Sequence to fold (386 residues):
Amino acid sequence: MGLLGLESQNLLTWRLTAQCSTLIGPSIRRRFVTCVGKADAHKQPLDKVPSAHFDSDQFPPGAGLAAWRQMTASLYQTWPRGEPEGFRAQAAGYKVGELVFNQAEFTPARFLRGPELLVGEGRDFLSLQMQLAGEERLIMSDGHVRLLTGNLYLRDWAYAFDSEASAMRLNAIMIPRHRLRAGAGIQAHTPVLSWSIADPEGRLLAMLWQQLLAELGQVTLPHARTLCDAFLAFLDALLGYGPTQTTPASLGAMQQFLMTRLQGSVGVEALCRHFHVSRSKVYRLFEPLGGVRQFINGARLERCYGELRGADPRRVKIADIASSWGFVDASAFSRRFRSRFGVSPSEVLGTALDHTEDAAVRANSAGARLNRDYTDWLLQASGRET
Fold:
């Protein structure tokens, strides 16, 4: 999954090498140092944005997985779906203060984040993820969430998960919780917030993100910090946490709040708490739309429709898509779906397989060229550095 961590511009590789020697064997230790990063050979100017990369193909056969596991051990455990020798992963990233921007791709795998990683500051970060290709199925205590191509997700890493991922390509930003005002408002029943690039908000967020990535390789580090602050402020505003002390309790603001939380438990009470208004005001605002519940169900049905169109009928079940959006009764879901769209879910399934990846969020593959030690970044970003 390739999320990368933080701080310290002069990152050494010798501690990582010592840690990995027992895992991947002393015979390839010299090759490991060469691939992960030489501390002195690739120093970057102090005013430039620090960069890093990882490529499993740079290791001897069978050692790439071991190196990846060591690098990401502070985030999750990794098991490839298939032979270990067939696992491949590449990642390239930038570090701007406490933020780490990452572009990654890897072959199918299972990822497990257990309770041992949730202690102390290890639970105090979020990640913003742009799904460029492939999909991931997250299983958490309150249910499961499917992360699909063409969507953006804000994930809270304070909760354990078990996931199955296809071959994936993604962009991600690791964000300390305190850097987002919205970070305090994410709760256990909505640990994943989402936007679709088919919607104006998601499309604009993706465009800004792509442009920011392009700039990070060109601008100075102080300039990059200013751009990142502006980007996070925009993200906060999308989540209903603008710079003002009170969030306007308008119908549009409430709709936007609900749209990013459709895969969690959300309703009238959540609106009342966030906007500091009475239930009667919420009812009054949503009355022309048939009420809060009807608005939520309609929006969830629209998301189901989009996922069904792009799903592979050989691999995906209609019931799995429906349940991921809160429709646990298959018969009731089918009736609601037909009532809204005039067709059954099975008639929609797989009708847009050739159009599941939107060109607006294709990967910017021009990543950093210099080698760096990702392990220290990940340890620091996840709050697990010793």
